[in-house]
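We treat protein structure as text, and this decision shapes the records that our systems exchange. Because each token names a local backbone shape, the row as a whole describes the fold. An entry from our holdings is shown next, in its original layout:
>
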Amino acid sequence: MAATERSADDWRILRALCGYRLVLAPVLAAVFFSGLAPDFVGLRQPALFQAMTYAWFAAGSLLMIGYVARQPAFEHQLSLHLASDLAAVGGLLVASHGISGGLGMLLLVPTLGYAMLVKPRLAALSAALGTLTLFGTELWRQYPQDWNAATLSQAGALGAVLFVVAIAASTVSVRARRSEVRAAQAGSALSDLSRINDTIVTTMRSGVLVVDEALRIRTLNDAARALLPAPGPLMGQDLRQLAPTLAADLTRWRSGQSPATPLRVGDRELMLRYTALGRADDAPVLILLEDARRARDEAQRLKLAALGRLSASIAHEIRNPLSAITQATQLLEASRDSEEAASLRNVIERHTTRIDGIVRDVLEIGRGQAPEPDSRPLRELLQRAQRHFQEGDSDSARRIRLDMDIDYLDDSTLVHFDGEHFCRILHNIWRNSVQHGARSIRVRAQPAGGQVLLHLHDDGPGVAAGMAEQIFEPFFTTTTLGTGLGLYLARTLCEANGAQLSLQGEGSGSGAHFVMHIPASTRGVAA
């Protein structure tokens, strides 16, 4: 790792090592000259002891200069630190009473500091060099006398301590560095995400306003500033003075009441949505502001655009049966054969019925009746849908058998759904099955957690592979009998009631299998 890649913490550890020897060397010299040191300090070679303290202080001064100048490279400085400490402590041990005097403990701090700055293998190497220094000085001091096994054992024990300290410090340091890198990466990602969020909030067309428990504005974007009826800086302003009606509405919402929407604030009508930014009662609140007039204009624009596309589709769908009716009428006028005339009248009747179905379904889409869901037993809704289907669509009802596998359902299986919408959804699916040649449909309910899965499986040819989503598009049909709007209406009504309609077993050839995911309800049955 290059010196430029070293962190500020690494350089601080290096500075601490410089300070360690700059303080310790003068202290040892002062204690030695004052006569306050124990007898073993400098006992064997006083001149050497004095010289080593001077040399250690000089080395520390030069290393401090290198630290300030950042020269040489960090790794080189670190090696010089270790070498100077090993040489100085070794000299002090030779000049004194050896390892038994306790001066070998001076190697603990340099070994610890070096281990914190290198990998575990280099840390073990520093401990090994420290241990060799202890044994070497002890052997040098005792030669050529008889070896003292006790002091050699002390050197070995202290060497073992150096190994433990070095490896432990290096391992902890490596893990701390990895954690620091991960924290830095997470911090960078969080910073990037914060900038992205700020950009999104700033560029949003909807107003974003955050107020604290004291109803003071903490954050807002440009759109919110434009919607609020006050010029100038708004950060820190009291919402009760700035927009009293909005503050009162927020207070009602905090007390559990329903907010008023739209709400007149100044000269604007605003659509509001409140979200607490925390679970505490005094948590800040996020307020989304939308200009009600602009929202209505946008809805009207989208409605007109959709109406244009729908009109083009209707014109295209009606043109074909009208052409067939016109041609059949012309042939009918020229025909004198009663059988041919009857066939042509059937063509006219069939295409006239198709046009009537297109107009009826389009009108049903245009009505856009809002759902009025309530809690009803699923069994009751299914029986009602079956009864109305058999009464109102007698032709389709005669051509198909409904196998209502619902005997196991009781009044405790409730769903939250608009009853009229429920009937229209099932009728559209059943008519679609009849138009595609199905002879029977099995209806089965399956409670699943917070919802109920309603399976509608017919015995027709099924849906070809790759058409699972196309069949729900308006005016998509594979027969000349339907309008192509039945399944589109069924899915639209499902979504309006918070349910989902999907096709399973696409391309299996074992019939069409529709599944309705219906929200379950635990409330009592509505009257």
In short: The longest strand covers residues 268-276. The first helix runs from residue 8 to 34.
